[in-house]
Amino acid sequence: SSDLTALAMQICSNIAKGGSAIFFSLEMHRRLLKQRLYSLESETPINDLWRITPSKKANIDARFNSYNLYIDDTNGLDINSLMNRAMAFHKQKRLDIVVVDYIQIVGTQSMRSKSEEVGIVAEKLKTLAKELKCPVLALAQMSRAVESRQVHNKKDSRPMMSDLADSSALEKWSDCVIFMQRPFLINRERP
Predict the structure, then answer these.
(1) 49: exposed, middle or buried (Cβ count in 10 Å: 0-12, 13-18, 19+)
(2) 74-87 pLDDT, tens per residue?
């Protein structure tokens, strides 16, 4: 979801202000991610970015240039290439966080089921976090089951571990699983 990507970008940019961060975007182009950052930094809705004055844009650019934030938007990146890039960047500037958006589209170069591939990627990301001694934040898609769940004859779209798409291995290899939820949607759905 774009909201999840925006949250991850905000976390990454906040860490990059005083540390070093790498953001692997396998779905969205670097230009679009930078637009999100401009929106966050300027507190301007993304559709109104054209209203930012040249001086404010220059100020934001100067701040971005002072951050140690690297965005890798390589299409079709497999887990081994991702790990190699993160380790190479870590040798140049010690990383404080690695973000992967999103885990289900990271390839493994194997001919396994999607669920098995996601498990392999999750395990390797756990290994990467240990090797780099920094957190790896891996965004994940939710299954559509959450949209149709009923509890006591009422729609209940609060996320659960079983809602993670493609693999229960995410739960196994994660130190922490955090769900993003929009309560206003849930409250609107409930009578």
Answers:
(1) middle
(2) 888 889 999 999 99
